[in-house]
């Protein structure tokens, strides 16, 4: 871990405990976010993006549990903290914005009260000062006549306005890390663009790190420094944003990028990734994407692919880029020696 | 707001009118002749007939109704057939008794239901939760006469903490008045508290699933802050509805409880007046109850808009 890492997630495993068994959903993911950097997590619905962010916040549902791994925030492992210690970090040093702006604000309290609440909580300001800060925050996120808005209730605001309020609330204590879980999915395109622009602006002004969760690659290209591509609870590719778009390696990432509609090209039909995500209990032993991968061989079904590193920290988890791929492809079998060469493979051309 | 109140007042008048017609008809189809009851079984048919004419009992029903209702509107509920006291005077004595019982019962209910509901929702699936569910279940299913007798048995006869029955007006001897009211208030209040506990538990559990609750935690609030500042107010809305309905019915008098504890309230009054065919008293008392229920519903509606800003008390369609 480099000293400039704001957050480093190491070998994180998250799952749900029901009466009899433990269902693992997130299976050993790694990533880090530097100070002032934006990481986007992409992947299709259900791959565990929200669980990852809720694990960082320590807000997993009651049955959810981090079963293994570390979440280092400023070098401190959050998984070891108790509720009281976590509550001092939440809303203060790490803030989160949720997917649903319409329902994430309490309908029975005024906007101003809701923003001041965390300011009073963490910064020990008086009600009056907190209210002034709330007005400043609303101004910062571009809400007109904030001194009137603070006296309104959430239902009197549009979806875009409410998401701005959520952002104002999240930023009110100058967090070091902002986690935004699909903050714009519920909003229409123009509002979406405004919110993204706002987040970019605030990021530079306040010098914070952002983890942005999305399944929209358009959003990624606008806001990300680094991208983590997840598939069924695992990382498939991890790279800086330019490299990823210029040179996607994993067949899943390639599929995602190809399925972005392009205006200047004649396309009869958008290529889509065929099939659907396997459920946790019928996960293939090997690469989780193998059931849908056009290149999959026998080996892919049975052996977990090694991580291949390339230039500038580009990482991909795929047999295709190992040095023994030709043999793997031909024979569909892997022996111990090949496993070793595979693990030492370098990603070329990235 | 003003138009909402006017609309509701109009509605109240209509409801009370309909209720008055129904009460009047029902009371008048009761078997038994008030004139005969007043004079006693040995009275001569002539005397009875004379009294019937005097009392207006031979007039067509709609004339009788009209006479009665036009007096009611002027605040005159008529006079008791039995001892000729004004019905308003009788009610003036009985209403404070029932009101006192209602207020204390409601207080008891809230005092139990708030903590029990909150604890069982926030500690769902624990011993706390099961105990309060058990309490709620028994509270709802235990018949008031049984609970009343049980309480007298334990706390008056056994422990001697409270006098077993009777009534003293509050202004005469506040302490004794309260002591006398506690057991009946528990008898009535337990039932309501059980119902409210159940309501509050389920409503809180639902509210605690909301996204804004997660937002509360994400802000750095602890469980207590989240429940008291964010969940409770939202969860109270259905609880208020049930409370309103129940308090309305308490004002109708808790007949059984009043009988067991010899509390001279409205419930007893109505039962006794029906037995003696004292029609004006029955009609007056029931009219008051109807008024009380309508009034409480109105209050509940006003409370909604205080609790939930999304509910606007506007003149438009709801
Ligand atoms: N409370 C829960 N109990 C059991 N399983 C759960 C629970 N919440 C989520 N899951 C499972 O965890 C997986 C990952 O969920 P998660 O919400 O992280 O997905 P996501 O990547 O955020 O998807 P989306 O893009 O739809 O928001 C899902 O397959 C889901 O079935
Ligand atoms: Mg999600």
From TrEMBL, chain A:
The keyword RNA-binding does not apply. It holds the Pfam family oligo_HPY. GO terms for biological process: peptide transport. Gene3D superfamilies: P-loop containing nucleotide triphosphate hydrolases (3.40.50.300). One of its GO terms (molecular function) is ATP hydrolysis activity. GO terms for cellular component: plasma membrane. It is a peripheral membrane protein. It is found in: Cell membrane. Residues 9-257 form the ABC transporter domain. Keywords: ATP-binding, Cell membrane, Membrane, Nucleotide-binding, Transport. Belongs to the ABC transporter superfamily. This is Peptide ABC transporter ATP-binding protein.
